[in-house]
Write a structure and sequence with these properties.
The chain is α/β, with parallel strands linked by helices. Helices cover 19% and strands 32% of the residues. The model has no long low-confidence stretch (mean pLDDT 94).
Length: 461
């Protein structure tokens, strides 16, 4: 749907949210890594001329999260949905205004499009979104006649016949702005709470001989609101499932999808296979023909084509170029770039490192604050000693170098092209290209001393 200069959107986000039992404003609680209100803001932004968000508790926090995406109106006294809309109306410029709760992130553009089709009638004051439930207990019933909606009756006030109605109101409305400005002035406070309810506009429209139409949402779950953390979990589960279904329809294989978590903004290429337990979040992109192994955790990472991320590996803020392999049980920390066809094996940790094309660190190593050239081999147990207690220092290993097992490279230090470091060495000085460096202490053998040691151990038992 294209932006429509005839429609402004008002999102009601001033509720106290007391049932969340939280210091965080309700609409900022995350659903798959994003504030729940951001889903709705993104949906209405595709068609609305302007988006107005009515804020109350935690107003500054909400504005910070949505900065540049909406205009904000504060509701000084929280006196119901009618009062919230009254606060926003002076800022409405378009002939039609969409009003929706801020705690319903599952409302879809397609359903809102149905409301736009409904308002083509000249005598329509408003159109509202509804759904039908097998068990509508607790919800306001939508009462219709041949002309449209007659009333919204709350369950406590409904008679026996009205309670049989299964169509319920979702609280999403498209109003003719002139009608809404008139109707808001006619709202009266409820006797129970002294609040002004937007649902009363239905009766006002009927009094003015204007039609109220209702359109059913595409999916019944679009009306799920978040009032507590149980609701939050339900909404997140629906969102998670939709993300995975979208990826699968675009050519991604997800094995046991009920175990996989992938946030909406993550991009995954075709013919990539994602195994059970994968947790992928943030600004992550994964290329085509990749393998993402079981129980991996990937965040804010760019992964090229034909990459293998094996079991139980963790990657954050990194880049892995095509045909590389990481894991199992590897940890790749922010600032790391793993080159094409490189291999980072089990129990290897890298941080702020550029690891060259075709290079290998197959197991049990820590490489931090390092620049590693192409076709370098890092032996098991190698450590770049990058921190001296005050500052971090860089290790440079040029292309073709071979680092023997159990080597400590005490930074700042440079190992030249095609140099060889003997196993068990502690390197504190630069090694020239094509050189052999080792610091191994001479081996001493004292025959018979082993028997004496064993005898002493036995005596202590």
């Amino acid at each position: 749907m294209e932006r429509n200069a005839k429609v402004d959107a008002v999102i009601l986000a001033a509720g106290e949210g007391t049932r969340m039992v939280s210091s965080i404003p309700k609409v900022l609680h995350p659903i798959m890594g994003r504030p729940l209100i951001s889903y709705l803001v993104e949906t209405v932004a595709t068609f609305a001329n302007r988006t107005l968000v009515v804020v109350g508790r935690g107003a500054e926090e909400v504005q910070q999260q949505l900065e540049g995406k909406a205009l904000f109106i504060e509701q000084p006294n929280r006196r119901g949905t009618g009062d919230a809309v009254r606060c926003a109306l002076p800022q409405v410029e378009s002939p039609w205004v969409l009003v929706t709760p801020g705690d319903m992130p599952l409302v879809r553009e397609g359903s809102i499009r149905r409301l736009f089709k409904a308002i083509s009638h000249q005598d329509v004051a408003m159109a509202m979104l509804t759904t039908t439930l097998d068990d509508p207990t607790g919800y306001g019933r939508v009462i219709r006649d041949s002309s449209g909606v007659v009333a919204i009756v709350e369950e406590a006030e409904a008679n026996e016949e009205e309670r049989k109605v299964k169509e319920i109101n979702l609280g999403v409305y498209l109003f003719k702005t002139d009608f809404l400005k008139t109707a808001i002035k006619k709202l009266t406070p409820s006797k129970a709470k002294g609040e002004y309810y937007l649902t009363d506009t239905v009766a006002i429209a009927r009094e003015m001989n204007m039609r109220v139409l209702a359109e059913e949402a595409e999916h019944h779950w679009e009306g799920l609101g978040v009032n507590n953390r149980v609701d939050l979990a339900k909404v997140e589960e629906i969102t998670r499932r939709q993300v995975l279904e979208t990826l699968m329809l675009k050519g991604v294989t997800v094995i046991m999808p009920h175990t996989v978590y992938i946030e909406p903004q993550v991009k995954v290429g075709t013919d990539t296979t994602i195994y059970p337990g994968a947790f992928i979040e943030g600004e992550t992109s994964i290329g085509s023909n990749c393998t993402i192994g079981p129980n991996t955790h990937i965040k804010d990472t760019s992964i090229g084509d034909e990459v293998k991320i094996l079991d139980h590996s963790i990657l954050e803020g990194a880049m892995v170029e095509r045909e590389a392999q990481v894991g199992p049980f590897a940890r790749i920390r922010p600032g790391t770039v793993i080159g094409e066809k490189a291999k980072v094996g089990n129990f290897v940790e890298m941080k702020k490192t550029t690891f060259g094309k075709g290079s290998k660190a197959s197991h049990l190593s820590y490489i931090g604050d390092a620049t590693v050239g192409e076709n370098v081999n890092i032996g098991a147990g190698t450590i770049t000693c990058n921190y001296d207690g005050f500052s971090k220092h860089e290790t440079i290993i040029e292309q073709g170098a071979f680092i023997g097992s159990d080597t400590q490279l005490v930074a700042p230090v440079k190992v030249g092209e095609n140099a060889l470091i003997g196993a068990g060495s502690t390197i504190t000085k630069n090694v020239p290209p094509n050189s052999l460096a080792l610091t191994r202490a001479p081996q001493r053998v004292r025959e018979g001393r082993g028997m004496i040691f064993l005898a002493k151990r036995k005596g202590k038992r």
